[in-house]
Amino acid sequence: MPTFRPRIESSVLIVIDEQPGVMKAIHESERVHRRSLFLARLATLLHVPILASEQVPDKLGHTDPTLWGLLSFPAIAKTTFGCCESADFIKAFRDCKRSEAILIGIESHICVSQTALGLLDLNVRVAVCPDAISARTMEMHKIGMERMRDAGVAPIHSEAVAYEWIGTSEHSRFREAVQLVKEFSAS
Amino acid sequence: MPTFRPRIESSVLIVIDEQPGVMKAIHESERVHRRSLFLARLATLLHVPILASEQVPDKLGHTDPTLWGLLSFPAIAKTTFGCCESADFIKAFRDCKRSEAILIGIESHICVSQTALGLLDLNVRVAVCPDAISARTMEMHKIGMERMRDAGVAPIHSEAVAYEWIGTSEHSRFREAVQLVKEFSAS
Amino acid sequence: MPTFRPRIESSVLIVIDEQPGVMKAIHESERVHRRSLFLARLATLLHVPILASEQVPDKLGHTDPTLWGLLSFPAIAKTTFGCCESADFIKAFRDCKRSEAILIGIESHICVSQTALGLLDLNVRVAVCPDAISARTMEMHKIGMERMRDAGVAPIHSEAVAYEWIGTSEHSRFREAVQLVKEFSAS
Amino acid sequence: MPTFRPRIESSVLIVIDEQPGVMKAIHESERVHRRSLFLARLATLLHVPILASEQVPDKLGHTDPTLWGLLSFPAIAKTTFGCCESADFIKAFRDCKRSEAILIGIESHICVSQTALGLLDLNVRVAVCPDAISARTMEMHKIGMERMRDAGVAPIHSEAVAYEWIGTSEHSRFREAVQLVKEFSAS
Question: What ipTM score was computed for the predicted complex, to two decimals?
Answer without folding.
Answer: 0.97
